[in-house]
Amino acid sequence: MIDTQLSDWLLESDPALRWQVERDLLGADEATWQATRARVVHEGFGAELLSHQDSDGQWAGGAFFPADFAFDDDGSQPWTATTWALKDLREWGAAASALEGTAEKLQSARWEYEDLPYWGGEVDVCINSWTLSNGLWLGADVDGLVDWFLDHQLPDGGWNCEWVEGSEVASFHSTLNALVALLDYVKVTGDRARVQRARAGGEEYLLSRDLFRRRGTGEPFDDRALALFHPRRWFYGILPALDHFREARMIDGLATDPRMEEAVEAIRTRRSADGAWSQDHRLDGDVWFHVDVPPGEPSRWVTLQAQRVLDWWDGTQPV
Questions:
Q1: Which of 45, 46, 136, 253 would bridge 40 by S-S if both were Cys, CB 3.0 to 4.6 A apart?
Q2: CB–CB of 236/286 below 8 Å?
């Protein structure tokens, strides 16, 4: 449990974060956190992002990139186009009813890659993961993407966006994104059997590497693998990985795995004396607005995620 000072600090936040604090950290009754969640589309981050939606259902005039994005530019990836906006709204808990008609409008949208139709996805694992999750949320027909993931799982159990370039080994980033989408499929449809084997293979890929180590050398696969940050775009981190395993194990009714422990303790040791965690890094790139603090400052989003991971982990360990 968290103390009053920390909970008050967390509750002094946008409804997109506040309802999750109420539900996941404070154990509020459902009527309380659902009432807060309902505010997401009417105020704060949710209302602001919805105000930028174009009449054709898109944001910034593009599927993955803004319409005016210069592909020959060395600038950073912008985070303002349609897929990113939908991902944010969904993860903030926005009601799909607030985007009535969007799924139908996006049937006319096209990916920047080969002008492919939006809800059919394209060749990138991460893009298809967000498309599957967003489509399930909005009620679009994205069932074919489930088969796409089953067909594109690699022999080592994971996925890699570079498969189209010939890669035959998975990546941490792509594998976590695929797992999140497949879990969303289970949550929405209740169909575990169709994706059970694929999910197990992807989870084993991450667990066999302790969620952050290279299989061959045992070293962290990336200098920022242990960094704590929000929001998560495509980049992998142990915190979003553990937060996914927390939800997946709760839904599947499975116990924790000891191979997660080192990553859990790496998060625990980063907690400050006042109980908060700080932002470690922020990906560059244009945004409509920032939803979290700059690196080095105490982060409500990171604190929410870190605390609920520890609450889950500690609550499942033998006394």
A1: 46
A2: no
